[in-house]
Every structure is written in structure tokens, then in C-alpha cells.
Automatic annotation (TrEMBL):
Protein name: Alpha/beta fold hydrolase
Listed GO MF terms: hydrolase activity
Domain AB hydrolase-1: 43-267
InterPro entries: AB_hydrolase_1 (IPR000073), AB_hydrolase_fold (IPR029058), AB_hydrolase_sf (IPR050266)
Pfam families associated with the record: Abhydrolase_6
Organism: Paraburkholderia solitsugae
Length: 276
């Protein structure tokens, strides 16, 4: 695969103005399944080391299954979006800022109306799942429903242990080279994610109390073999959001869209069809 600096000819870019929480940002985005015209939009939020390219063809396949258009974007620091300055550390509430400021600003920049947002589904994986939960809690009138895949609600020891191991792999194996295929500034992407998750202050991060505000339909999916989190994550969601539906997948790790795509797509399609 080519370096992302030259490979993403079909990506577009949105310019977001500076706010109190961030400077000017250039966000890489891509539409999928555009032929569906006025169909509802599914917005995809990637994992902590993800980007547009790391989703591969899953958003396309799911949107075709759902009859939706898809909006896929690389969060700041990832893919071809504005990189994180190497002397900047993500704050403990970085996911809150993504849900409160970045995603709404991107939707504004793309002229996605409030009527379209009311029909919009937000689908997030891992850190992107946490941001999705926060977005649903903060903007209850600006989505039709949400799907969270291997989300984090609080920090578990298994997460810290796996992220510590990933740092060792990044610094001692070819993992850095592999990830560089997906990010213009791979160290920006990796250490932005790794440093905050291994920051002792982040051990107290917990968004369970904010989930009570979620009113729209919510599906939470977790694999039994996830090495970045346990079922306690989505069980906590069910405690806080009684109308949430849970799906627990066998023989599936942290990335159900890669480990069990057929089962995941079936679960999402069945859930969304019940809400229409």
C-alpha cells in the first residue's frame, strides 16, 4: 500500500475554524455509497489508532446493507487530518471535546442540516465508540440512533496492559512501519493515543454518569475475546441506558468489523430496521 500522503486521492478535506478547545483543523473525510441520494447518513468514528483507510471496505459494505450514505473521517491527529504537534498531549477529556466540538463542527462544514442529523446514525469503534456515546448524550436531537463497537466507558487494567504491550511492539517491531501506511504522521497518531491512555491521570476517566442522558436507540457490541476491554463495558452501558440492546459475539476480539463482520452486520441491520 502506498503512503497515505499520496494514496488518498479520493479523500476530501474540511476546514474547521479554531475554537476554545482547538486551533484551525483540516479534516480528511470521504463519502461512501453516495448513489443512495437522500438516504439517511451513517457517520463512522474510528478507533484510537484508526483512520479512513483502516476501516477498509467495511463502511461501504454496511451502508449498502442499510441503504444509507456513509461519512467516514479521520479525527485530528490521524490519517491525513491535521496532525497532533509532537509536544502536545491529549487532555484527559479529549473524547468529550471530540463529541462536543469536532464532530458538530465537521457536520456544519459539510452543510449537513439538522433535519439530516435527526435521521443520522453514528457508529463508533473503541475510542470512536466512546465519542459516539458522548455525542449521543450531548446532542440528543441530532441523531436517529447510535451503534458502539467495543466502546470504553471507564479504564480497565486489561486496557492499560494491552496498550503498554502495544507501545513495546511499536518501538521494537515493524508495527510502526505498518501503521505508517495509514497516517501521514504516524508518531503523532500513535503517541497521542498511547500517551493519554498510559497517563496515570487517565485511570480516573469514567463517562458512565453521562450515559443517562442518552435517549435515542443504542446498540452496543462487544467480542468475548477482546484484549482491550471486558463485557463490563457494555454491561455498564445497559445499566445506565435501560433501552440499550447488547450483542456479545463469540470468537471475536477488539475489532468485530474485522473478526466477525457477518455477525456484526446482521446485528446492526436487524437493530436499525426495528427503529424505522
Amino acid at each position: 500500500m502506498q503512503n497515505p500522503a499520496t494514496a488518498h486521492s479520493i479523500s476530501d478535506f474540511a476546514e474547521l475554524p479554531a475554537t476554545a478547545s482547538h486551533g484551525p483543523l483540516r479534516i480528511e473525510y470521504r463519502w461512501v455509497n453516495e448513489a443512495t441520494g437522500n438516504a439517511p447518513i451513517a457517520v463512522f468514528l474510528h478507533e484510537g489508532l484508526g483512520s479512513i483507510e483502516m476501516w477498509r471496505d467495511w463502511p461501504q459494505a454496511l451502508c449498502e446493507r442499510l441503504g444509507m450514505r456513509g461519512l467516514v473521517y479521520s479525527r485530528p491527529g490521524y490519517g491525513l487530518s491535521t496532525p497532533r504537534a509532537h509536544d502536545v498531549k491529549w487532555p484527559v477529556d479529549f473524547m468529550t471535546a471530540q463529541a462536543r466540538d469536532i464532530l458538530p463542527a465537521l457536520l456544519d462544514a459539510l452543510n449537513i442540516s439538522m433535519q439530516e442529523r435527526k435521521r443520522m446514525w453514528v457508529i463508533g469503534h473503541s475510542d470512536g465508540g466512546s465519542i459516539t456515546l458522548l455525542y449521543a448524550a450531548m446532542h440528543p436531537g441530532a441523531l436517529a440512533g447510535a451503534v458502539v463497537i467495543a466502546p470504553h466507558v471507564f479504564v480497565e487494567d486489561i486496557s492499560v496492559e494491552s496498550i503498554t504491550q502495544t507501545k513495546q511492539l511499536y518501538e521494537t517491531t515493524d508495527l510502526r512501519s505498518k501503521l505508517s501506511r495509514y497516517h501521514a504522521d504516524v508518531d503523532s497518531a500513535f503517541y497521542g493515543w498511547n500517551d493519554i491512555w498510559l497517563n496515570p491521570a487517565f485511570m480516573e476517566w469514567n463517562i458512565a454518569g453521562e450515559l443517562n442522558a442518552i435517549k435515542q436507540p443504542l446498540l452496543a457490541v462487544q467480542g468475548h475475546d477482546d484484549n482491550y476491554g471486558t463485557m463490563a463495558q457494555i454491561d455498564t452501558i445497559a445499566e445506565r441506558v435501560p433501552h440499550a440492546q447488547l450483542v456479545k459475539l463469540d470468537a471475536c476480539g477488539h475489532s468485530p468489523h474485522r473478526d466477525a463482520p457477518d455477525a456484526l452486520n446482521e446485528a446492526i441491520a436487524a437493530f436499525v430496521s426495528r427503529q424505522r
